[in-house]
Specification:
The protein has 961 residues and is an alpha+beta fold. 60% of the residues lie in helices and 15% in strands. It contains 26 helices and 23 strands. Strands 1, 2, 3, 4, 5 and 6 form a 6-stranded antiparallel beta sheet that branches. Strands 9-8-7-12-11-10 form a 6-stranded antiparallel beta sheet, with helices on both faces. Strands 15-14-13-18-17-16 form a 6-stranded antiparallel beta sheet, with helices on both faces. Helix 2 (50-74) packs antiparallel against helix 3 and helix 7 runs antiparallel to helix 13 (404-410). The longest helix has 66 residues, at 187-252. The protein is elongated, with a radius of gyration of 64 Å.
Length: 961
């Protein structure tokens, strides 16, 4: 019956814990669902994809369903609530896998582990097999959706990255809970979870290793395949630049252009300073015309329409990519142009200075920039114009080449997500894409630095994780001006495209892992049943043996460890049966002994309780005369003794005198003042001398027993010392009419009783002494106060009289009735006149309150009223009594202060006289000084110091000696 109750209690506790876990997990799931809702709301507004709305709705339903779970759980439908919670996890995982790509594998494994975790925390262990199968089926469904879904799903890179961390976190939590709760699981569930855990971990590990290996291989192959593409794009750009440089250099040798430039150079003033002043004037004229948008100004018109400008336009028709071309002379002045420039003087421009190169000449290729005058991006190319005859530099030819032809190179597709761009390193670094020129992000710049050592790098660009490769710009004919440019051709491709095949294979592997886990789970159930069946049989046998079926036998079904355990158990039960047959008699004997011991213990407890009662009553009595008879009566009544007597040792410590007794014979002994000689008469005298308890079990045979005719029925006697510390103050004598009535255990109890009685006697004596000392001290104090205040009565003023008109001292005793009564009684006295009015000099209402100081009346506070109808109420009397008490303290303090002052003055006078006497060395001078000081202090007219003369008879005795 007890076992059933305990098992039921355990199951109730488990059910309560599981119900609490269901509530907590439902709240946790609802709280966690808020995070994806907020995230997908953000993506919905930023990307405008209706599928995010479905995800938001999914997790909103999850929160609502969890609140339903909480309500069902609170109503007691715990199993339904727990299974619904597992179903919510299945629903959320399936919905997310159907809408988001590349996370099905992670969701499948996570769902399986979460299902097992929720089942362990919320459901009975017998349901764990069904929970695992449900998790496996849900994982299979998620894997199939991830592989076979026919429509395009959302690509969310951050969710893909988060899925790996989700798997790792779930595994850690799973193994933590399994390790902490493994000991509480049933053996079948332990085997099943162990198999499932091993299979799941192997599947995850195999899938992750395969994914990592294939990803690395494909990433490396993709990176290597992008390298030649980048090199080809770099060479294509180098070829275009080299072609343009060749064409411009050929144009610079045109005869018309060289003639026009030579003409401009010949027009220069030999004085360079004057020539620069002229150029500055031309530059100012040009700027004014440009501000007025005036091409008809002679200076402007002469540069836009001459022989050289015509050759430039002809070149533009052949090479339409050159949108702006200008020619300058050797000093930087404008010679010819296809478009009106913003200024005339060009020598302050970077391209001119690099192309002129201090007369040495060089080729300049500039970084692409936006030209506001023509409204497009161009990069400038400048070459020196050399004299065909001498090779000297005559001027500079500059062209603005559009980026359109370079953008055509970038338009060629590279896979589905691959892109090519040109990067112009500098400060800041820019890159050319199909949609124009942009500032390069820091990630791209850092990636280009890393490419100095690697053939490819992985970088996170705006398009997501990408594989990037780069190559420098170089020309086929090895032109240094092109090959030395800090420009790069880059090619990048989305990593998702590269590893798409890997993800498909990993999904297949994970689905296969789930299938393997399912197969392993089936095998685990079969193996667990085969392993646990004999153990369960043995457990059942043990339970039968435990409830009292000693004849039960364990079934030996195999020769393994379980069979050996069953055989050992059978041998053990046989030995136990043999032992039990011999133990019954021993148990009966021990039971009898135990009962006797319990009886003795109960008797001992009863005696100690009686001792406690006697001690409590004795402690409440403080008078020794009443204490001793009370103790003897209580001891006799509680312990059923024939006679109880208390002897106290006299002051000379010669006799033990009987002070109290309860029996009639004892009372007769008290009347004749019975006493025993210490150390000589009876066991009482012996105990009074030795301080050791004595027992006379047979009084007729005890040699020290005194045959007492007052106690003829005594057959057993015990005497115990009443002892305080090392001092014996008396003896407790108890006698019984039964022979052998006292044992050693009784003696211990009576010793405790004797100690308590001794303490009570000692305490009562102390109380008596303290009371006597207190009474003496109070009497002395009253005597002292009476004498002190009596001495004040000889003074001139004895009191004070106060009226409405004023006050005056009282110098004689006032003999009024109320005052005399208050002095005599020590209590307040009231006197009221007879009739409604008092005539003149007749009695008026009066109140006399004694002034008491430490129970001593030292004066009276007398109050009279002129109103004959005046009556003193209780509050007024109480107030005046309080004032009287304060007045007594104030008067006593004044008296003490006066006495202290007087004593201090006397001491000071004595000290001064003594000092003056000690200042003299001659005895006669000392006596004269003493007489003079005493006469002055006492105000006496005559002071004498007489020598001492003993009487004649005293002198005769002294002579006789």
């Amino acid at each position: 019956m007890t076992q059933t109750v305990n098992l039921s209690t355990y199951e109730d506790e488990q059910a309560s814990t599981q119900q609490q876990n269901t509530h907590r997990l439902a709240l946790l799931t609802s709280a966690l669902a808020v995070i994806p809702i907020a995230f997908y709301i953000y993506l919905l507004f930023s990307e405008r994809d209706w599928r995010y709305f479905l995800l938001i709705a999914t997790f909103t339903i999850v929160i609502a369903a969890n609140f339903w779970v909480i309500r069902r759980n609170q109503k007691g439908d715990h199993a339904l609530a727990a299974w619904t919670l597992i179903g919510i996890v299945f629903y959320a995982a399936l919905s997310v896998a159907a809408l988001i790509a590349n996370i099905g594998s992670a969701l499948g494994i996570t769902t399986l582990l979460l299902t097992v975790l929720i089942g362990i925390q919320t459901l009975p262990q017998r349901s764990l097999v069904r929970v695992i199968f449900a998790g496996i089926l849900a994982s299979l469904a998620i894997g199939l959706i991830d592989i076979l879904v026919p429509y395009e799903r959302i690509l969310v890179p951050i969710v893909e990255r988060f899925s790996a961390g989700l798997i790792l976190l779930t595994i850690l939590v799973f193994f933590f809970l399994i390790i902490t709760q493994f000991g509480k699981l049933q053996f079948v569930n332990k085997i099943l979870i162990a198999y499932v855990s091993i299979a799941a971990v192997i599947s995850i590990a195999f899938g992750q290793i395969t994914s990592l290996t294939l990803t690395n291989v494909l990433t490396e192959n993709a990176g290597k395949s992008l390298q030649p593409i980048a090199e080809s794009r770099g060479q294509a750009m180098g070829s275009i630049l080299a072609q343009q440089i060749d064409a411009i250099q050929a144009l610079s040798t045109n005869a018309d252009i060289q003639w026009q430039v030579a003409r401009a150079n010949r027009s220069h003033d030999p004085d360079l300073q004057k020539e620069m002043e002229k150029i500055n004037r031309f530059d100012a004229i040009w700027r004014q015309a440009d501000a007025a948008n005036n091409n008809e100004q002679p200076l402007v018109n002469g540069r836009l329409y001459n022989i050289a400008s015509s050759q430039l336009r002809n070149f533009q028709q052949s090479f339409p990519g050159h949108v702006e071309m200008i020619v300058t002379d050797v000093l930087g002045g404008l010679v010819a142009a296809t478009n009106r420039t913003s200024d005339y003087y060009q020598a302050d421009e970077e391209w001119w200075q690099k192309a002129y190169n201090n007369g040495a000449g060089d080729i300049f290729i500039g970084t692409p920039e936006y030209d506001e005058s023509i409204g497009m991006y161009i990069f400038r190319i400048a070459v020196p114009i050399r004299d065909r005859a001498t090779g000297d530099i005559m001027g500079v030819l500059q062209t603005g080449y559009t980026i359109a032809e370079l953008q055509q190179l970038l338009s060629q597709p590279i896979g589905e997500t691959g892109r090519a761009e040109y990067v112009f390193l500098g400060n800041p670094t820019k890159h050319l894409a199909l949609d124009g020129i942009h500032l390069s992000p820091p990630e791209l710049v850092q990636a280009l630095e890393n490419l100095e050592k690697e053939s490819y790098v992985e970088v996170n660009l705006e398009q997501g994780d990408s594989i990037l490769s780069a190559a420098p710009i170089f020309s086929p004919n090895k032109r240094e001006a092109v090959d030395n440019l800090p420009w790069r051709a880059i090619v990048y491709q989305a990593k998702a495209e590269t590893i798409a095949l890997v993800q498909q294979r990993v999904r297949t592997i994970n689905l296969l892992g789930v299938l393997i886990t399912a197969v392993v789970s089936f095998m685990a159930i079969h193996v667990a049943r085969q392993l646990t069946s004999p153990i369960l049989d043995l457990t059942h046998t043990v339970e039968q043996f435990k409830v009292g079926n000693l004849e039960t036998q364990a079934k030996v079904a195999s020769n393994d460890e379980v069979g050996y355990l069953a055989t050992t158990f059978n041998e053990l039960t046989a030995q136990i049966r043999q032992m039990l047959s011999g133990l019954e008699q021993r148990v009966a004997e021990r039971t009898a002994e135990l009962e006797q011991a319990m009886h003795r213990s109960a008797e001992r407890a009863r005696e100690l309780e009686l001792v406690s009662e006697v001690a409590k009553v004795a402690a409440s009595q403080q008078q020794t005369e009443a204490l001793l008879p009370l103790v003897t009566s209580l001891v006799s009544e509680k312990f059923s003794f024939y006679h109880v007597g208390i002897f106290l040792i006299d002051e000379n410590r010669e006799y033990a005198v009987l002070q109290a007794a309860n029996s009639p014979g004892g009372k007769r002994m008290l009347e004749r003042q019975h006493k025993l000689k210490i150390g000589q008469v009876g066991i009482v005298g012996n105990v009074a001398e030795t301080g050791k308890a004595r027992i006379a079990l047979d009084v007729g045979q005890d040699a020290v027993y005194f045959d007492n005719p007052d106690l003829p029925e005594t057959r057993s006697e015990a005497a115990l010392p009443l002892q305080i510390g090392n001092e014996i103050i008396g003896v407790l004598d108890v006698q019984s009419t039964e022979a052998n009535a006292f044992s050693e255990e009784n003696l211990k109890t009576l010793s405790i009783l004797a100690d308590q009685i001794a303490i009570a006697i000692h305490n009562s004596r102390l109380v008596t002494d303290l009371q006597r000392a207190l009474l003496e001290a109070q009497a002395l104090q009253r005597q002292y106060l009476a004498q002190s205040w009596k001495s004040l009565a000889t003074r001139k003023y004895l009191g004070y009289h106060k009226t409405i008109g004023g006050g005056r001292p009282v110098n004689q005793t006032v003999q009024r009735a109320e005052i005399m009564q208050a002095l005599a009684s020590g209590k307040f006295v009231t006197i009221y006149p007879k009739g409604s009015k008092a005539k003149e000099n007749e009695e008026t209402p009066a109140l006399a309150i004694p002034i008491r100081l430490r129970e001593q009346v030292i004066g009276v506070l007398n109050i009279r009223s002129q109103d004959p109808n005046r009556r003193w109420d209780d509050d007024e009397i109480a107030l005046l009594s309080s004032i009287s008490d304060r007045l007594a303290l104030a008067l006593e303090n004044a008296r003490l202060f006066e006495e202290t002052t007087r004593r201090a003055l006397r001491e000071r006078t004595v000290s001064e006289i003594t000092t003056k006497i000690r200042s003299k060395t001659d005895p006669e001078s000392m006596i004269q000084t003493a007489l003079a000081e005493l006469r002055q202090v006492l105000g006496a007219s005559h002071v004498e110091i007489l020598p001492y003369a003993p009487p004649p008879e005293t002198q005769t005795r002294e002579k006789g000696k």
